[in-house]
Amino acid sequence: MGHAAPTLLPRLAAAWPASRPADQDARFRAFREGPFVANFLRQAPMERFWLSDLRRFCLFLHLLRESDRMRDAQAGRIAFAPAAARSQLSLARLAQLLEMAHATGDFERRRDPRDARQYVVEPSARAFDLLDRLVEDFHESAPALIGRRVSATMARGRAAQRRFIDVTLQFLGGLDLEDRGVGSLSYMLAMLDLHLHSPLATTDLIRREAERMHVTPVTIRNLLRRAEQRGMIRRDGRMLSLSEHGVRRVRVGMDAFEALAARLLAPQAIPDRAAAWRDAPRPEGRPGGYRADRPGGPPRPAAPAAWS
Questions:
Q1: Over the stretch 168-179, which tens digit does the pLDDT of each residue have?
Q2: What are the start-end ranges of the H helices in 105-184?
Q3: How many CA atoms within 13 Å lie on the side-chain side of 133?
Q4: 220 in a structural domain
Q5: What is the CATH number of the domain that holds 54?
Q6: Three-class SS state of 109
Q7: How confident is the model at residue 49 (pLDDT cuts 50, 70, 90)?
Q8: pTM of the model
Q9: Per-residue DSSP letters for 189-255?
Q10: In whole angstroms, how far apart are CA 80 and each of 85, 96, 121, 174, 247?
C-alpha cells in the first residue's frame, strides 16, 4: 500500500495481533466499501481538494489541530517549515495551498498579532463539518476491522476529534507521500483492491478502478506500470495479481491500519509494545504525528531521527 518506512509500519503492525489472512481480507473488503473511504473519493469540491491527495489531507489535519477549538481557545501558530515537513510539502506548495484555502473560505488566515512572522489559520464551519463526518464515518466503519463494538459516544466531541487527528497524523507520517509514484491515495487503493479481488483481467481492473476512483484509465495504467517496475504485481497472460513481494507489503499496511483502528477505538486492548511505535523514530527532518500527552497545551512532536 505504498512505500513506507522500513521499520515504522511493521512496528505498528506488531502492536496488534495478526489476523488470519482470509478473515482480514473480508473485513477490509467491507471497510473499503464503507462510508469512511467513500469520503476520500467524493467529487464535491472540498473533499476533492483536501482528501484526494494525502499530503493535502495531512495539512488539513494539521491546520485543524492548531485551531482555537482544538487547543481550548489558545490560538496556534502556523510556522511554515514544521507545517511543510509534517505534510511532506515544499514551502512554496504550502504557501500556495494556504492561499487557496483562504480564497475558497475553507480557512481564515491572518497575521498573528503576537508575531508578524507567523500566521493564525482558523478553520471554517464547513471544515469542522468535514472533520465531524470523517470521525463519525471512521467510528462507523472501522470497528469491523478489529472485531469490537464501539459506543457511539466515542465519535463525539473534541476529544474524539483530537484523538483521530493525532493518530492519523502519526500513521501518515510513516508513509513516503513525497514519492508521487507510489505514495498517492490512488496507488494505495489500487494495490489494496488488486489484493482483495485478484486475479483480475488487466482491462477489467483498469476500467473498474478508473470508475471507482474517478480517474482516467491512463492514470490506472500508469499506476500499474509503476507497480510492475517495483515488483509489486505479476502477470499471467491477461490476468493480474500481486507478487509475493506485493502481498507482503500490502499485508504490512493492512496490519498497520488495523493497529491504527485499534488505537482509536480500543486503546486499552493494545499491548504495551504499541508505545514503542508511538515514540518510533521518524525520518530526519520530518516530525512525527502529534502526541496528545500535554492536555491544554500545544502538542509535542516526536523527536526526529533517521530511519534504518
A1: 998 888 888 877
A2: 125-141, 143-146, 157-172
A3: 17
A4: no
A5: 1.10.10.10
A6: strand
A7: very high
A8: 0.78
A9: HHHHHHHHH-SEEHHHHHHHHHHHHT--HHHHHHHHHHHHHTT-EEEETTEEEE-HHHHHHHHHHHH
A10: 9, 12, 12, 20, 38
Residue 56: name the closest of 93, 92, 81, 9 by CA.
93
Each residue's pLDDT tens digit, 200-213: 999 999 999 999 99
Go through the chain and tell me how many residues it has: 308
- Count how many domains the chain has: 1
**Please, which pLDDT band fits residue 115 given cuts at 50, 70 and 90?**
confident
> Rounded distance, CA 188 to CA 253, Å?
9
CA atoms within 13 A on the CB side of 1: 22
87: domain range? 24-175
Lowest average pLDDT, out of 211-215, 259-263, 283-287, goes to: 283-287
